Amino acid sequence: MTSFQVTSQDLEAIAIGGAFLGTGGGGDPYIGKLMAQSVMAEKGPVTVISPDEVADDWLCVPVCMMGAPTVMVEKLPNGSEAASALAQLESFLGRKADALVCIEAGGLNSTIPFAVASATGLPLIDGDGMGRAFPELQMVSFTMHGIAATPMVLADDKGNSSVINAISNLWTERLARCQTVEMGGAALVALYPMSGAQVKQGILRHTISLIREIGETIAGERWAHRNPTEALVSRLKGRRLFAGRVVDIDRRTVGGFARGRATFKGMDAYEGQSFQVDFQNEFLVCRNGEGRLLATTPDLICALDADGGLPVTTEQLRYGLAVTVIGLPCDSQWRTPHGLELVGPHYFGYQHDYIAFEELA
Amino acid sequence: MTSFQVTSQDLEAIAIGGAFLGTGGGGDPYIGKLMAQSVMAEKGPVTVISPDEVADDWLCVPVCMMGAPTVMVEKLPNGSEAASALAQLESFLGRKADALVCIEAGGLNSTIPFAVASATGLPLIDGDGMGRAFPELQMVSFTMHGIAATPMVLADDKGNSSVINAISNLWTERLARCQTVEMGGAALVALYPMSGAQVKQGILRHTISLIREIGETIAGERWAHRNPTEALVSRLKGRRLFAGRVVDIDRRTVGGFARGRATFKGMDAYEGQSFQVDFQNEFLVCRNGEGRLLATTPDLICALDADGGLPVTTEQLRYGLAVTVIGLPCDSQWRTPHGLELVGPHYFGYQHDYIAFEELA
After folding, report:
1. Do B227 and B324 meet the contact criterion of CB atoms below 8 Å apart?
2. Which position among A245, A307, B21, B339 has the lowest Cβ density within 10 Å, counted as fewest Cβ atoms?
3. Which residue of B165, B170, B174, B180 is the best one to mutate when testing the A interface, meaning the one whose CB has the most A CBs within 10 A?
4. Are the Cβ atoms of B165 and A160 closer than 8 angstroms?
5. Considering the entire predicted model, what is its pTM?
């Protein structure tokens, strides 16, 4: 795997693939795509490099948006905040970044780094810290590899910012989340400053390539007037969980998160059944009407519009929308005891233990 | 007015005077006194200098505790957090402080700076930013003189910290308050880094001397078995508002503040009447049972234990406690339009306009 260029045109596929792996959350990548395309129109394409090409002594920095997706889509970043967060972190560290990193391979945060990479001319490393999207900042492979989230910089659209230094990544999440809420529900952040050696150890590899490929698959199937479900399930070793229409959606923005539950009435092969999907920014748990578990965090629960075949985020769920919901196995790191402690069902307040998606078939 | 030494013994009077000008809030200065005395036992006395002795190019830094007094008295600072907040601010600014400043002449924050001054060997400037205590960090004379609260450092007892840079002092308050809550309800902070020239322009002068004098007056009257009310009213051009017993106290710690209302049944000359005092950390508004205003923020409302004559803070109010409540005129800066915008009744959500304490007699 070697480096490749990502142009404004390539972002179309990356935004779609990012929305899919965003598992309902991470914010609509359409906004990040517009941000990145606007910057690229002026500053040119972005070079994506393999983790293997990163020198051990490089300073590598993830840059992303933090907050409730419901807010992010109404409070568009003006583009300069993310670069400002990076610049302030560089200033605090007294050193320039050598490469950028995606914190999550999903949603808005799979496209925002392209905007910053284009603006700064820095390469973006092919990989991320989640292999999907998760709602809280400590939920990354970097935490499992002992990499500190701090110093972390938050910057808002008004010109406010802060630098956090915390004793753990969970404390960083707490201290950053409350400021994100205060800043209006969303902030641009630069965090987990790490060496190239740490990147090579901690990153989930080649997930940028993966979301581009997913986006191209979805676009290709749509072009051929096919729903992309079969192709995606086959490519990603996933399984269709159900197809259904939204009959109820309970949603609130609380504690800086978009939380809620969507209830679906089965359709086609699932006629007569019902299904529930819980979310905290991202889809967390899917059950059928009898309460049987169909998929649970950290495995991926992804929704596609049953008609158009495009990924659906939680804020797009509305009464009557027909969706196909697909389950995918998560990265194997998340299935370790440390991984489950960070992102397993218990962390999110559920009583059930994690059962691998494959065993729930 | 020239410099003078403050010893561990002098802190007894300063703590009492600070509790009085703390207008019910700012936290029980007893804790700050213990902190300061413990440091002084090892590091020696503190030099208090007049603002006139400060060189224009000095870096002067207020260091204080921020949070709900109800929390502060249960979550004792270990002494190193305040010094840590100062050290981190110095590191951020790339420059050592030349002198310390009291943010408020009241409560815990009139004694904590002595602990830091003794530990660092820095002089403390005779004055403060409020001439009393107020609940929010933008409520200082420094704001009226256009001095920025940021960069501001918060540090907690666990080792977490943050550096805030905000576009206004009100934004600094918002971003710091939410982290203070997250840090457990209280944090040690270093803020309003300013030049000696700015200190001379913005500080309310000689209020450290004043609280020492008030403390000595209270101690002297108590020594002579007299209630200090008459002596204080005479010295500070104040007025006794009422004497009464607490018959009801509604108190909650919300949004990082101790808020509530105390109701009193008049006694002695006030027999048959009732009184109410509202507070947000500090006493804000005093009315009699018919709703007539007796004193309102920013004028000072101070309570003394009717028996012992010592100042009473809001967290010490309890059913049956007999108090004498005294009103004092605030510093004239608070009575300007800008002052009233910062700390007048409207800011705290009251409908009534400010009426000077003297006119309410």
Report:
1. yes
2. A307
3. B165
4. yes
5. 0.90
Angle formed at CA B150 by CA A119 and CA A101, multiple of 5 degrees = 30
Q: What is the ipTM of this complex?
A: 0.86
Using the beta-carbon criterion (under 8 Å), do A175 and B183 form an inter-chain contact? yes
In the numeric block, which tokens belong to residue A190? 């630069």
State both tokens at A175.
Answer: 């201290």
Closest Cα in chain B to A179: B175
Q: What is the pLDDT of residues A130-189, one digit of tens each?
A: 999 998 999 999 999 999 999 999 999 899 999 999 999 999 999 999 999 999 888 999
- Asked if residue B121 has pLDDT above 90, the reply is yes
| DSSP-derived secondary structure letter, B267 | -
- CA atoms of B22 and B311, how far apart (whole Å): 9
Query: B275-301 burial, b for 16+ CB within 10 Å, e for fewer?
Result: bbbbbbbbbbbbbbeeeebbbbbbbbb
Q: What confidence category does residue B93 fall into, taking pLDDT thresholds of 50, 70 and 90?
A: very high
8 Å CB contact of A175 and B166: no
Phi and psi angles of residue A287, each rounded to the nearest 5 degrees, phi first:
-130, 160
Residue that is written with structure tokens 């977490």 in the block: B160
- Which domains does chain B possess? 4-207 (3.40.1610.10), 227-360 (2.40.390.10)
Residue A2: HSE in the Cβ half-sphere, 13 Å Cα cutoff: 0
Looking from the CA of A211 toward its CB, the CA atoms found within 13 Å total 36
Contacts of residue B7, Cβ cutoff 8 Å, sequence gap at least 6: B40, B45
Q: Please say if the pLDDT value at position B49 is more than 90.
A: yes
For the cut 70, the answer to whether the pLDDT of residue A15 exceeds it is yes
Chain B CA closest to residue A156: B166
